Description:
- With 277 residues, the chain is of the alpha/beta class.
- It has one domain (43-276): Vaccinia Virus protein VP39 (Rossmann fold, 3-Layer(aba) Sandwich).
- The protein is 25% helix and 24% strand.
- The protein has helices spanning 32-39, 44-53, 71-80, 92-104, 158-162, 178-183, 186-192, 206-215; strands at residues 7-8, 13-18, 21-26, 59-63, 85-88, 110-113, 116-117, 122-127, 150-156, 167-172, 195-199, 218-223, 248-253, 264-265.
- Strands 6-5-4-10-11-13-12-14 form an 8-stranded mixed β-sheet, with helices on both faces.
- The longest helix is centred in the middle third of the chain and has 13 residues, at 92-104.
- The mean pLDDT is 96.
- It comes from Caballeronia humi.
Amino acid sequence: MQNASPTPLTPPMYLIQTRHGSMLANGNDFFIGRALLEYGEFSEIESQFIMQLVGGSGLVVEVGANIGAHSIAMAKTAAQNHQTMVVFEPQPVIFQNLCANLALNNIQNVRAWPFACGAEKGELHFPSQDYYSPGNFGGVSMQTEAGANTVVVPCVTLDEMLGGALVSLIKLDVEGFELSALQGAQRTIGRSRPVLYVENDRMDRSPALIEWIWSQDYRVWWHIPALFNPDNYFAKSENIYNNIASFNLLALPRERAVQTAGLIEVTDSAFHPLAKR
Length: 277
């Protein structure tokens, strides 16, 4: 357990000693920033699961890295395996925060890019954010059309950015844009057959996402970790996230023999666990 108090910097930023290293975080971000302040970690149950997926040979790819709450732990695990990691975060302010956290932890096996990832090269847009006010800055969705108050960002394909590199893991958390990002990685997926760990919390988009992954000859399982970890780094018992969980898909090539104890295989693309909540 770590007892050191977060250090306030220029508001609303804090420097925090977390479970996985020093982190710069925005206290106005209700999910990632506040979790780091309250618990010294963010979605640690998910993070521990993801670290088990890092291994083998090839690049580790994270699309939607945000400020690096998962990236730091993933990168340290990848470094132990002599792997390089490639991360993408399109929000300019959040990308700066991500790079600060990589630097704070002397992470040298990560290449970070300020791009969105989609099915084709071009531009995407996201609603302008007020990072000085409370919000959910990890819940920002990309959109194809410009609006009255949107920010334009470059969009690339993973196939283009990764070239012919071998890839062992692709993690995607892009707020409903997961299918498009995967479509832009189709050659990489066909060539490398990486493990896929993909957020899937949009019920209306879930069937198409699952069916596309199936079409690549993958099997798929649900992984639904709670945001609150009772054994959190700061040993706090109050659960400010109640029963909120992440809804993710673990996808593995059908030809690979695997152990997935405790996970529920997806056999019906029309079913989503959120429908029960």
